[in-house]
Specification:
417 residues; alpha/beta; Urease, subunit C, domain 1; 2 domains; four-stranded parallel sheet; 14 helices; 24% strand
């Protein structure tokens, strides 16, 4: 590798070159030099309109399906999609078949993903087969490369199991992911409980289903200590509970999904199952509260919560369809319509410190871990914009602002030009 990125605006609050337009010389997988103007004989020159450069983005929740659901997405193709969407690292959920609940499956994902531009970081299941009963092989999975432990979209009903998990992982500084949705309160609900659900005659999921579970989980965390991450929070009261816990000094973090920040349950009027997600799309007041939670740092990071689903699971009656939307391809363009650029970059990179990964600051001598993008382009997300094997995007027809040029990680690169 011997590349010069010309006239790139640095977006990195940790860099001494933040908000400066500079040339960046990359050589042998590292940032060799940053200066106003650089010329190196034999170097490949990359000069793009309105080029912005930030630390590589990290998505804390991505599903690809392999092993077991390759018809939805494969690891290699999914990582290519992630790279073209601006992500240099992704945490891969455990909802495969079989569930990633042992070191062999963690090793399989790492081995299958080796050599790709975007790095795959497996999340191990918290319990065996994600059934919520017995703890999985947490320590062995940690040694095999798992970065956290959680049962994807499944709350741990047994409080004692979560208590023991929080105590156990402290021996090796593990991170517990605690999805919050009380099944008994959710019942047969399929959308947010409110005016829209009443108008459409769809069974509602009250915000209480999430808030009750979060309150219990935070009580457990206060009792045990340890580190807990609450993925994809979706209600205003959830944020209040997390704020209170942080003020107490508890080691709790949380994420929000891109679609919760951009879309609302007003999208449900056509009963299009592309908009069926878990937790459900909420109302406009809640969306504004979530945006405020991002801006005041109650919400630590933003995830795409990318969940490819084949047509057999998605193109069904709304009640019967499986929850989930793809989100990698649309993430940056969608976020640019609702948040400042500096905040977007911060929230797409903050997950590294939560998941115990090295930071990716733009400085001379550091390894190259970079996302390249422009904020200038205005466009509409269409079927042609989808790179994934599955096409279940909740963002079809939505306005976008800004496009991804590609990524560079160490000596690997994937460009869209």
């Amino acid at each position: 590798m011997n590349i010069i990125l010309k006239s790139a605006k640095i977006i990195d609050a940790t860099s001494s070159h933040n908000n400066q337009v500079v040339d960046v010389h990359l050589k042998d997988g590292k940032i060799e030099k940053i200066a106003t103007s650089i010329t190196v004989e034999g170097a490949e020159v990359v000069q793009l309109e309105d080029l912005c450069l930030s630390p590589g983005w990290f998505d804390t929740s991505v599903s690809f399906g392999e092993p077991g659901y390759e018809e939805r997405e494969t690891l290699v193709h999914g990582l290519e999609v992630a790279a073209r969407s601006g992500f240099t690292q992704v945490a891969i959920e455990s909802n495969n078949n079989p569930i990633t609940d042992n070191q062999s499956l963690v090793a399989f994902i790492k081995q299958k993903a080796a050599g790709q531009t975007t790095e795959a970081l497996p999340i191990g299941a918290l319990t065996m087969k994600s059934e919520g009963t017995d703890l999985a092989e947490l320590y062995d999975m940690k040694n095999a490369g798992a970065v956290a432990f959680g049962d994807y979209k499944k709350a741990i009903d047994n409080a004692n199991v979560l208590k023991i998990a929080l105590q156990y992982v402290q021996d090796f500084d593990g991170l517990v992911l605690a999805f919050a949705q009380d099944k008994s309160i959710k019942g047969k609900g399929v959308v947010h409980e409110g005016a829209t659900s009443t108008t459409l005659g769809l069974k509602g999921i009250p915000p209480l289903a999430e808030e009750l579970q979060i309150a219990r989980n935070l009580f457990l965390l206060e009792y045990t200590g340890g580190k807990m991450h609450i993925p994809t929070v979706s209600t205003a009261r959830s944020l209040e509970l997390i704020r209170e816990a942080k003020n107490k000094g508890l080691q709790v973090t949380c994420s929000v999904a891109v679609h919760q920040l951009v879309l609302t349950d007003a999208k449900l009027t056509e009963f299009d199952s592309r908009h069926k997600v878990s937790p459900p799309l909420r109302d406009e007041a809640t969306r504004q509260a979530l945006l405020a939670g991002v801006l005041d740092n109650t919400i630590d990071c933003i995830t795409t919560d990318h969940m490819p689903l084949d047509i057999e699971h998605k193109k069904l009656e709304f009640d019967l369809a499986t929850s989930g939307t793809i989100g990698l391809e649309s993430a940056f363009g969608a976020l640019n319509t609702v948040l400042p650029l500096e905040v977007i970059v911060d929230k797409l990179t903050a997950g590294r410190s939560i998941f115990g990964l090295p930071t990716a600051s733009i400085a001379e001598g550091n390894e190259a871990n970079l996302s390249l993008f422009t904020t200038a382009a205005s466009w509409t997300f269409t079927k042609d914009s989808i790179l994934s094997k599955s096409k279940n995007s909740a963002f079809l027809g939505e306005p976008m602002q800004g496009k991804v040029y590609g990524v560079i990680r160490q000596e690997k690169q994937t460009f869209n030009f």
